[in-house]
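Batch manifest, entry 17 of 40.
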Amino acid sequence: MFKNYIKTALRNLWKNRFYSGINLLGLSSGMLCFLFIAAFVQDELSFNRFHEKGERIVRMNFTGKMGENDLTVPQLGAPVGAVMKEEFPEVESFVRFRETGEYLVRYENQSFQESKVVYADSTLLDIFDFTLIAGDRSSILRQAGTAIVTQSIAKKYFGNQNPIGKTIQLDNESDYVVNGVLADLPKNSTIQQDIFLAMAALPESRETLWTNMNFETYFLLREGASIANVEAKLPEFLRRHLGSEMERFLKISFDDFLAAGNSGAFTILPLHDIYLHSEFQENLGPSSDIKYLYIFGAVGLFILLLAAINFVNLATARASTRSREVGVRKVVGAGRRQLMGQFLSESTLLAFMALGTALIGMAITLPYFNELAGKSISMGFFAEQPLMVFVGFSLVALIGLLAGVYPSFVLAGFKPIEAIQQRVQGNGRSHQSGLRGALVVFQFAITTLLLVGTLTVYQQMQFVQEKKLGYNKEQLLLIDGAYGLGDQLSAFASQLEMDARVKHLATTSYLPTPSSRNKSGYFLGNSPDKSALYMMQVWYVDENYLPTIDIELVEGRNFEPTTETGITTNVIVNEAAIREFHLTGDVIGQQISRNFGEDAGDQSELHVYNIVGVVKDFHFESLHHKIDPLVMHQGQSTRFVAARVTPTDLPGLLTDIEQKWKALAPHQPFQYTFLDEGFSQMYEAEIRMSKVARLFAFLSILIASIGLLGLATFTALQRQKEVSIRKVLGASVSGLFLLLTRDFGKLILIALVISLPLSWYLMQQWLQGFVYATAISIGTFFLTGGVLLLVALLAVGFQSLRTALGNPVDALRGT
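Output type: structure tokens
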């Protein structure tokens, strides 16, 4: 019996191949989108889930407020981990990580710039399940001057040699012996380092200061330990240690510090929440945002729902033309059960054919999706997710059953004679039309949401690209690893300055794109104000920095050339710093002070600085964040040589610069980039989201228009005789065209009225994530409405025009 159902179903699908093709294309497109989004979401949710002790691993963070500045960091002071382990019985172990920037790593005559280098405690593998493939587990990272590397790094530097015992040199001065090799860290780990250096080599790791927060610290809790119990003890723990240190520093009680409107708290974040729920910018590794998963998950479900609605809509519409077939089958002996089985088998078979088509499409297009989404998903992913596979097959079966419910339960109940004479219409048709109309409205409402969202994301990205940033990001060449030149750096810079194609040049580690960042607390005046400590960004730049980056000086003067090797007492601040200090009038000559920082030495010694200039506020973080107060000290920082260059003969200039570099440092890698590339990286997530949104918006329009085309074709076929009679009675082609299209136009307008206000609200919520955001223009809504009406007109108009132009005699003769 089942074999007969399948054979008959295939015959019927082939007989009605136009409708079958439309249904197959629409449903498989929706399933393909859903499969991609499901794989993406599942991959995002898998981060850090491979650690056996993951449920017991937590990271401790600091969140506080000093003056009007919020301080939220995932780092702690050096002593916090050891003191926590000593005072909290819930803590079994801890590991600290300390990033100190990029390093020039050399082995024999080859060297590379490495950014994924971090200091780590010897307890690293006691807590995290990274696979050690070479070396003695009991000795790794225990001695100063030792390191462990990933398999890729070992291959890069040592080839097929045994890496154990080999010595690498960092920044031409520090030697580290490799005593362990890790398998490359999983892609779904938030720790993505290539070289781990023994923490014992870092003097800072033995400091006792709690306020010097530079160590990302993870704790392994004991079996059965409660995170809530640990969190309950943290306020007193903070008061006892960090609070007492601040009292010594500020010379006021911690209670008075809090009473002045300041705050401070240690918080706990489980390892499994770090990737999607971390609010911190300075995470050790990659991070995302759970809201994007909600958005993409909703989009995936909506697109699948669009395709399912199409499928059900066309199936029910097509079923009403099969009443004569039902009558004939009943006359020759078919029972209700057989008819129900036949209709359900047809719809379910087509649904699973759509699933097969979607899987084939996914296998073909998966590399392009991975490139677009920044993932490395493979088709074997589904073999690792049996629950997802089960849910997917269940959804497909449900869609098939829903599409077969109407013909199987309604048509199977018709009386044979009435069915053969096709007298089974009346109220039924009106009810079906109303249901299909509601489904069309729902379809296009969802499509409107996606299209408005896509246009808004695009407009915000355009706003970001076109906004005046306060500096010039174009034609700024950045040569990385300048400190690798050592004593030859000045000679290299002098040679570049002599080139007419180089307008300005500076050496710096601080850029208005992701680079070095430091914060420090300042007092206004030359003595500490016990109640007013202002947290500000601290940069160390030279006198060439402002003209090279093209930052506007609005008051005072630039730094003057100096022969001093240390940090001078002159500073330049931005307008945000002036507002933070509440300074008015002439600010040039005003003094600020601090008693910690690179030039501080003894913590009890106060250092006073003179404001000699004020720069116009410029964006050195993404537009998600407001412009923070900034203090520029005159000093040296040498990660980059920044050169403002002319756009003419750029390839020739780069070749000449590389030759000069190789002449001075033949064993140092020459690496360069441009500032605008770093600027784009700040919005990588949004740019990727914009591309994905455009793709899904296009597919949703395609799916909706496919469904509309199918319904329009069916409607035109149903009303063919009516149109012919009207034409015989004198109706014009334009009048008949309007008759066939106006109902669909009304449905699109209803969908727009419902969805446009909702889409405005949702995108306003998204834009609130940017401190500086575009406004949603009325043109967005007009464009959305125009596109959808045009799509609907094209989908419906062709078939309607074809019917209106048809020969009425042919249609009437078919009665």
